[in-house]
Amino acid sequence: MQRKKEKDQADSASQTAPAVKGSLTEVRKTCGKKRCRKCASGERHPAWLFMYRLDGKAHSMHVPKSMVPLLEKALEKGRDMERRMVENGIALIRDRKAK
Questions:
Q1: Between vectors from CA 97 to CA 94 and to CA 99, what angle results, nearest 5°?
Q2: With contact defined as beta carbons under 8 Å apart, do 94 and 87 qualify?
Q3: Collapsing DSSP states into helix, strand and coil, what is residue 79?
Q4: Consecutive 10-residue runs of the chain (99 residues): their mean pLDDT?
Q5: Cα 53–Cα 69–Cα 48 angle in degrees, nearest 5
Q6: Relative orientation angle of helices 2-16 and 68-98, to the nearest 10 degrees
Q7: Which residues, including other chains, have CB under 8 Å from residue 99's CB and lie 6 or more apart?
Q8: Read out DSSP for 19-72?
Q9: What is the arrangement of strands in the sheet containing 45-54, beginning at the earlier edge strand?
Q10: Cα separation of 10 and 69, whole Å?
Q11: In a 3-state reduction of DSSP, which class is residue 92?
Q12: How many C-beta atoms surround the C-beta of residue 44 within 10 A?
C-alpha cells in the first residue's frame, strides 16, 4: 500500500513540478536525544537537503521526505531546460556563421 502511495505522489509530481536548478542530497544527522540508538551507533537519521547557489553563494534548505519525489522531478525538468538552452545557443551561433 505504501509503494502505491509513493508512486501516486511521484506521478502527481511529474505533472505539477516546476523546473528548478540545484541538487538534492541525502545526509545523515544526529537528533540530539541522549538515548537514541541510531545516533549512538553512528548510523544517524536520514535527511534531505536542496543545495543551490544564489548570488554566487552556496545555500541549502531542508526538504521534507514527502517532497523528495516532487523535487527530483523539478530538478530533472530544470536539467532538461538548461540542456535545451545550451542547444539553442549552439544553434544560434551555427546559424549566424552559415550566413
A1: 115
A2: no
A3: helix
A4: 57 73 96 91 94 97 96 96 96 89
A5: 50
A6: 30
A7: none
A8: P--SEEEEEEE----TT-HHHHHT--EEEEEEEEEETTEEEEEEE-GGGHHHHH
A9: 23-29, 45-54, 57-63
A10: 5
A11: helix
A12: 15
Q: What angle do CA 31, 32, 35 make, to 5 degrees?
A: 95
The three cell numbers of residue 47 are 535527511
The model's pTM is: 0.73
The backbone region for 32, taken as left when phi is positive above 0, alpha when psi lies in -120 to 50, beta otherwise, is left
Q: What single letter denotes the amino acid at residue 1? A: M
Residues 10 and 37: their CA atoms lie apart, in Å, by 32
| Helix, strand, or coil (residue 18) | coil
Residue 15: CB atoms within 10 Å: 7
